[in-house]
Amino acid sequence: MRTVLDNSIAAKSDLEIAQASQMKLITKIAHKLNINEDDLELYGKYKAKLPLHLIDNKKANDSNLILVTALTPTPAGEGKTTVSIGLTEGLNKIGKQATVVLREPSLGPVFGIKGGATGGGNSQVVPMEDINLHFTGDFSAIEKSNNLLAALIDNNIHSKTRNLDIDPRTVVWKRVIDMNDRTLRDIVIGLGGTANGVPRQDGFNITAASEVMAILCMATSITDLKTRLANIFIGYTYDKKPIYARDLKAEGAMALLLKDAIMPNLVQTLEGNPAIIHGGPFANIAQGTNTIIATKMGLSLSEYVVTEAGFGADLGAEKFLNIKCVAGDIKPKAMVIVATIRALRYHGGAKLDELNTPSLDRLKKGFVNLEKHIENARKFGLNPIVSINNFISDTEEEVELVKALCAEVCVNAVPTKAWAMGGDGVLILAQAVVDEVEANKNNFKPLYKHSDGIKVKIETIAREIYGADGVDFSKQALIDIKKIEKLNLDKLPICMAKTQKSFSDDAKLIGRPKGFVVTVREFEIAAGAGFIIPILGKMMRMPGLPSVPASEGMDIDENGVITGLS
Q1: Residue 523 among the catalytic residues
Q2: Quick one: how far is CA 111 from the chain centroid?
Q3: What are the structural domain ranges in the chain?
Q4: For domain 454-536, is the CATH number 3.10.410.10?
Q5: I need a surface site. Which of 9, 41, 337, 561 has the fewest CB within 10 A?
Q6: How far is C-alpha 548 from the chain's CA centre?
Q7: For residue range 181-220, what is the model confidence (pLDDT) as tens digits?
Q8: Which of 391, 516, 523, 531 is catalytic?
């Protein structure tokens, strides 16, 4: 068996490759998109914000949106971002004007265990260090906007003159911080006497889990942003009247803090092509896609836009298609599912220490997971292309087997080498995408109608996308459904919150599980973002750090050179 890639390409780290690149001035990148320098909000030499007036809905409708998703994630990682960036490079190399539109990284994973989100190897967006750290301050603005509302809530509870009679026991709004800090999950605030407010139980979420983040990603304008912020559900009064952010007159000030954050960020790929990075919700607890504004910005300025949705196609892509596409009136023209030989081995039963061990048998067994994602794509009217993201441990026999298995279900599978070769390693995939778009055979349609009942929408996702036999609703979930219906929010789309590790709600059921039922434990309301969130299992909104955090290996020297970032 011969391996597909040579070990010599792994000599440099992602950070070293990024630091060695010769970046172009951001004004030069903007010129590729026909943007005047006067229209840029510059953040130094290599970053800029794009004003919303550059969005042209007619041009956006005529452009070509490519959605990149993946099979069910594994501990080894599948490389969606790397492939998305590489595909953009490849499209530009074959003469298409293409821009990649991605999410912003959260500091929690950066300093924890997952690392950053700027791609890898020779397929990255830069400046890598800035993007993975504070970038242009969007996360900070979201954090401050979120926490302003939290302060206003507690101030109103404490106030004796303008008190809305909020019952502190019903407040669902939490504070946020962009850091993994498990000790903040459940806290008590307001201690120390009456001057310090009313004592109550509270907690922190990570900033990416804030509804303000979800709202920013769903908003289409400043006016829409303010409307959505006003619609944030807070809790109830003592006499059971619902309270929203608008009752505290919070939306104006919250939007003020987001005046710059609402503008998408322009950076570049290693090969000097445009990259727009904006918003960063997690896909297992929120919609897991970049902002509607960023996507429409890219579509307004480019012939092709490559974007990705978080985790597997059962999470980020399902939400992208059922929530974002409907709200933003956008339609993908093609879909790419990223698969790795390692992931297929894993879903075929390989243990973590066996992921790099070739095995045609495990590969064939694990293909059922990829096959289910292919089936799911077709339920949305999309015929996907499979990108086999090559790793050093892949063998030619295994790659040929995946191609053959995909051919049996009438899907084109293309090996890609974005990590090793940048755009040159993705030329075949780029042409396959163009061919798919120009064939014009895809006809995107949502899986359900937003007007369907809550249970109908959830059961549709569970049965059609997850392959479940049915859905159990806990006693609390049934109570929550009645509350949602009473608030007239039952016509909102569904944003399922479940483990990313399985089609089911049990992380241990890998591959393509069958004969299972998912359980909705409870609901959360994201009225401002415009969806309701069924909780399947216990979802973590404030991660903790591992015993050896990635931060321990990071440093900066006297010349400002950063090391250890990934």
Answers
A1: no
A2: 18
A3: 7-137+261-437, 139-257, 454-536
A4: yes
A5: 561
A6: 25
A7: 999 999 999 999 999 999 999 999 999 999 999 999 999 9
A8: 391
